[in-house]
Amino acid sequence: MDEMIICRCEEIPLKTIRKTVQEGACTIREVKLQTRAGMGICQGRTCRPLVEKLLPSEKEQAAVYQISGYRLPVRPLLLQDFFKE
Amino acid sequence: MKTADAVVIGGGVIGTSIAFRLARKGLKTILIEKGAIGGATSGSCDKAIFLQSKKPGVHLELAKASLAVYKQLEHELGESIEFEQCGGMIAIESEEQLSTMKEFVQKQQQAGIPIRLLDVYEARQIQPVLADHMRGATWSELDAEVNPLLLSQAFAKAARRNGTEILTHTEVQGIECIQGRVAKIKTNLGEIATETVINAAGPFAPAIGKLVGLSIPIVPRRGVIFISEKVPPILRGNLLCAQYIVSKHLAHLSENYNPYGIGLSLGQTKSGNLLLGGSREFVGFQKDVPPEIYASIAEHACRIIPSLRGIRMIRTMVGFRPSTGDGLPILQESPDVEGFYIAAGHEGDGIALAPITGQIVASLVSKDNQFAHFTQHLTLNRFAALL
Ligand SMILES: Cc1cc2nc3c(=O)[nH]c(=O)nc-3n(C[C@H](O)[C@H](O)[C@H](O)COP(=O)(O)OP(=O)(O)OC[C@H]3O[C@@H](n4cnc5c(N)ncnc54)[C@H](O)[C@@H]3O)c2cc1C
């Protein structure tokens, strides 16, 4: 169970994420900055809901905790697709 | 109430580096970060430690001193931060740039920087991906890189091991002074009694200064970067283009035809992602980036490296460099509020300068004068005319 891969793109197992949460991470952004979960080609579209479930319950999270935003591009795009023409 | 010998405000590369050095000196240190460690500017930036581009004088000497600390930092921190002296290149695209860069290389060589001017053939031996029309490049073995995400985390962990208490998701909301001296910090989660506060809030340092009535002339300079999917290694070291140097050093001349401050910055992480930038603009903390900027960065990069056209981008990042205007940070105890130290304003060099900044600020706090040759150039007073 501990070896189960949560972030498939970066191959981050459950145990790594659990350890990070135990050490104090309580937002998606912190888990991402510390483990790379969510940094891969799908940008967390697969693992984000799973990681959210592993975070301390919402009640424990103070209202000030910012949620992690979504960033451009919504789907991977070729660099040339950003050109003006 | 909690008490501390020193409170560091801000958990970016600068604040975590300072907390580590203070704790190592035996000070009971608390670091306060309103979001995540390394979650602001220090998590939205490139990874380059460029020396060849530094102005001879304080800029260059600071960078060299920081590089010296970097060389033993993994040993000190006890883990990898992916530091590597990988070399760096500045690609030259036009005759006009070439003549400016010839002068530039001469000046840098006179200052003792190992830097070479290469013709296009030599440049493409190092970076085969460069376009046919390039006119040449510079190369320096001195340039290095580090993983900025690992850097903040490693500094924070080492600080904690040395006794620092780290409070994340905690916001500093007030600073109380008694007779012109710092006495207490107020946060959304309680108060801390302390006589020493270090303002390491990067681009947010002016707001912290206001809490003690101090005006700090730092403004955010927005930068945009693309992150690509993982690709096999295509690059050696980090790459800038001469336009970047022109827009950095001669901003007043280039602004007319380069309103977004576009210049290539390209690096590849150990995991294979390309970090591809960038822009330099003064637009406040505006996070919404107009599509023209993405288009300009993409078109500029693909002109210099045509094969980038077919690489997929998975994300973009927006960061705000803390800019003082002269490219140097402010590292000083406030002349007006005893015990209030400013350690911010590293603009586009905060990753490069974080290691030496920690040492300098720890030395300022212990008043041992060890870095006076640097700190005399890093005062708030140098902007007196602006305040
Ligand atoms: C696009 C881009 C590319 C770059 N590339 C490079 C590069 O290749 N090499 C290089 O050397 N540098 C680079 N830089 C510059 C570098 O990123 C910055 O100089 C550096 O990250 C600044 O670090 P900092 O710790 O001062 O600021 P930050 O990382 O912003 O840290 C300040 C912290 O203070 C916290 N804070 C603010 N207000 C409060 C409060 N009231 N209470 C508690 N906490 C608070 C914030 O949440 C933040 O985490 C780049 C920057 C950008 C934007």
From TrEMBL, chain A:
The keyword Oxidoreductase applies. Keywords: Oxidoreductase. InterPro entries: BFD-like_2Fe2S-bd_dom, BFD-like_2Fe2S-bd_dom_sf, Metab_Enz_Cyan_OpOx_G3PDH. Residues 5-55 form the BFD-like [2Fe-2S]-binding domain. It holds the Pfam family Fer2_BFD. It comes from the Bacteria. The keyword Oxidoreductase applies. This is NAD(P)H-nitrite reductase large subunit. It comes from Ammoniphilus resinae. The lineage of its organism: Bacteria, Bacillati, Bacillota, Bacilli, Bacillales.
TrEMBL record, chain B:
SUPFAM superfamilies: FAD-linked reductases, C-terminal domain, FAD/NAD(P)-binding domain. One of its GO terms (molecular function) is sarcosine oxidase activity. It holds the Pfam family DAO. The keyword Transferase does not apply. The keyword Nucleotide-binding does not apply. Residues 5-364 form the FAD dependent oxidoreductase domain. InterPro entries: FAD-dep_OxRdtase (IPR006076), FAD/NAD-bd_sf (IPR036188). Keywords: Oxidoreductase. Its EC number is 1.5.3.1. Signal peptide: none annotated. It is an enzyme of class 1 (oxidoreductase). This is Sarcosine oxidase subunit beta. It comes from Ammoniphilus resinae.
